[in-house]
Design goal:
The longest helix has 14 residues. The protein has six helices and five strands; from the N terminus they run βααβααβααββ. Strands 3-2-1-4-5 form a five-stranded parallel beta sheet, with helices on both faces. 29% of the residues are buried. The mean pLDDT is 92. It has one domain: 5'-nuclease (Rossmann fold, 3-Layer(aba) Sandwich). By secondary structure, the chain is an alpha/beta fold.
Length: 138
């Protein structure tokens, strides 16, 4: 059973927040204020985050931001078995499948993403846009 106290955040929210997208910044601020909740991101998200900003920010800036993310989130690693499960999922986007499999692996009850339509076919998962994150009770 999915745990409503566990929240998985997609890469695009992390990227958006650091790029200055207000809705993503406000979402993370709210999530960080929640008591009794566990926040998760994947190792895949860290790699993607670094890749997006590699040409736009200095290595020192990226290092500081990654350390900050690691202080706020629990990091979920993935293994070969997770990838095998992900490639068998019904979605057309294998990266989304990997994130979904990792979210499910941690029994997260909420998944925060800007690409809500990409996750509409996943069952047992409360998918929210960053602007809807306040639907998660304190």
């Amino acid at each position: 059973m999915m745990d409503s106290n566990r929240i998985f955040v997609d890469t695009n929210v992390l990227v958006g927040a650091w790029a200055g997208r207000e809705k993503d910044e406000l979402c993370l601020q709210y999530l960080f204020s929640l008591k009794g909740k566990r926040l998760y991101i994947s190792t895949l998200s860290i790699a993607q985050f670094v890749s997006v900003f590699q040409k736009k920010r200095t290595n020192d800036e990226i290092r500081r931001q990654v350390k900050y993310l690691l202080s706020k989130f629990n990091l979920v690693t993935f293994a070969e078995k997770d990838v095998e499960v992900a490639i068998d999922e019904v979605s057309h986007d294998i990266e989304d499948n990997i994130q979904y499999v990792l979210c499910r692996k941690m029994n997260c009850g909420h998944f925060i993403t800007n690409n809500i339509k990409d996750y509409s076919g996943y069952f047992l998962l409360n998918v929210l846009k960053p602007s809807q994150s306040r639907q998660i009770n304190q």
